[in-house]
Specification:
The complex is a heterodimer. By secondary structure, chain A is mainly β. Chain A is built from no helices and 11 strands. In chain A, 0% of the residues lie in helices and 52% in strands. In chain A, strands 2, 4, 5, 6, 9, 10 and 11 form a 7-stranded mixed sheet that branches. In chain A, strand 7 and strand 8 (73-78) form a beta hairpin. Chain B is built from no helices and 11 strands. Classes of the chains: A mainly beta, B mainly beta.
């Protein structure tokens, strides 16, 4: 099992450009999440999905869109990148009904720089 | 307003001694608390968790204590080993875990030889 994978690992964008971050999991998890981590900060939830075809906003959703067309994939889109979106982005997945600990499994992260 | 607080940005402990990492929370709706460990350039990895109906959970060298009345939890690592050097995040969940986790800012634990 590869677990949670993220593509790409690194990316540099210019202000106003768009891009999509891809998250894939092979654990058949129902729930998937996108977080961002900024220096000196904890992880903050951007958007999440509790099943295929469903998405919901987290704590910091502005400037991002998401889609969950397939159970194993969760895409995070930036329509018009801004320097404030420079961050490390983490995807996570979980299956609370099978996990008594509410554990989420994280990907390795995507480091995004917007100039 | 931060709902999960880790007030020590860093902590230095000698190898073999006990490491104690602290976490405070403000939201009474949190029903599960988790600790994650993170190495540089990697994603967080789950360490240990505790339900709000318990006051202690132990897993090998790691023990988490929950004081619900004080809205405080702590992670004890005994004995501390060099591989424990990492950033430790306290996280909390409400509503059965569906809505994501709320994280503290993390504590950088440094184990001195």
């Amino acid at each position: 099992n590869a677990g949670v994978t993220q593509t790409p690992k690194f990316r540099v964008l210019k202000t106003g450009q768009s891009m999509t971050l891809l998250c894939a999991q092979d654990m058949n998890h129902e729930y998937m999440y996108w977080y961002r981590q900024d220096p000196g900060m904890g992880l903050r939830l951007i958007h999440y999905s509790v099943g295929e075809g469903t998405t919901a906003k987290g704590e910091v959703p502005d400037g991002y869109n998401v889609s969950r067309l397939k159970k194993q994939n969760f895409l995070l889109g930036l329509e018009s990148a801004a320097p404030s979106q420079t961050s490390v982005y983490f995807c996570a997945s979980s299956y609370p009904r099978l996990s008594p600990t509410y554990e989420q499994y994280f990907g390795p992260g995507t480091r995004l720089t917007v100039t | 307003d931060q709902q999960v607080k880790q007030n020590s940005p860093s902590l230095s402990v000698q190898e073999g001694r006990i490491s104690i990492l602290n976490c405070d929370y403000t939201n009474s709706m949190f029903d599960y608390f988790l600790w994650y460990k993170k190495y540089p350039a990697e994603g967080p990895t789950f360490l240990i968790s505790i339900s709000s109906i318990k006051d202690k959970n132990e897993d090998g060298r790691f023990t988490v204590f929950l004081n619900k009345s004080a809205k405080h939890l702590s992670l004890h690592i005994v004995p501390s080993q060099p591989g424990d050097s990492a950033v430790y995040f306290c996280a909390a969940s409400a509503g059965g875990g569906a809505d994501g986790l709320t994280f503290g800012k993390g504590t950088h634990l440094i184990i001195q030889p």
